[in-house]
Design goal:
Layout lengths: L1 E3 L4 E3 L3 E2 L1 H8 L3 H10 L6 E2 L8 E4 H10 L11
Antiparallel strand pairs: 1-2, 3-5, 4-5
Amino acid sequence: MINIKQHNTLVPDRIVREAERKYITGVGRTQAWVLEKEGSYPKRRLLNPNGGSGICWLLSELLEWCHSREVVNPEVEKC
């Protein structure tokens, strides 16, 4: 279970595949790989540790990463 702080509700954790990961984070495949190598993005996991080619992420780790991003205020202070 993961705790989504914004709503104070518990959501079951689950596996997220590539297309959904991109939709959730808004980060493309190459940029995600670069950020992951820098240690600033959730690490991918193997769906089949015995040799399969499928990769996934945990929803909880992606949401935590999203919530850790700085909020950008689109309102510009007028002089």
